[in-house]
Amino acid sequence: MATPFLRSLSSNQALRSRLRAAASGSSSSNDHRNDLIKKVLFELPPRPPITRSEEDTIRHNTITAAYKLHLTRQREERQAGLSRKFRMIQKAMDELETTNKKLYNAARTKERGILFPRQIRMATDTPAVSGWQYSYSGPAKTTRKKAGKS
């Protein structure tokens, strides 16, 4: 069995030979050369199937099953959190309906077409348009009398 290093060397040698074959073509067969270069660069050679021992297969299946279980638990926790949030929103809306019908109706209306508040000014890395205020002289200085000495 060849090591991954030797497999990569042999695939690199095969790649070089295909590139040489593509480069040696005449200029009249330009389309054929482009197709061959695309094939060499973007199509991967078929990989041999991975052979595992029985112990490795059991280990692999155990890890895969544990990962699937982990993903299932994450999905269930996320779904439980979302349903809890939805129940709380429903409870708040029911309370709003009983206390103030006008606010309840305002909360239920959907503003179509507004995806983000227009009033918010986005932070940028560039300076302000107005630039530097050259006429700024700072706050006026006032003199204080020292207290305690007479």
Automatic annotation (TrEMBL):
- UniProt GO MF annotations: structural constituent of ribosome
Q: Which family does it belong to?
A: Belongs to the mitochondrion-specific ribosomal protein mL40 family.
Q: What keywords tag this UniProt record?
A: Mitochondrion, Ribonucleoprotein, Ribosomal protein, Transit peptide
From which source organism is this entry?
Answer: Bifiguratus adelaidae
Q: Which PANTHER family match?
A: 54S RIBOSOMAL PROTEIN L28, MITOCHONDRIAL, LARGE RIBOSOMAL SUBUNIT PROTEIN ML40
One GO BP annotation is: mitochondrial translation
Q: What is the lineage of its organism?
A: Eukaryota, Fungi, Fungi incertae sedis, Mucoromycota, Mucoromycotina
Q: Which Pfam families match?
A: MRP-L28
The highest taxon in the source lineage is: Eukaryota
InterPro entries named among the record's database cross-references: Ribosomal_mL40, Ribosomal_mL40_fung
| UniProt keyword annotation of Mitochondrion present | yes
The name on file for this protein is Large ribosomal subunit protein mL40
> Where in or outside the cell?
Mitochondrion
Q: Give a Gene Ontology cellular component term annotated to this protein.
A: ribosome
Subcellular location, principal: mitochondrion
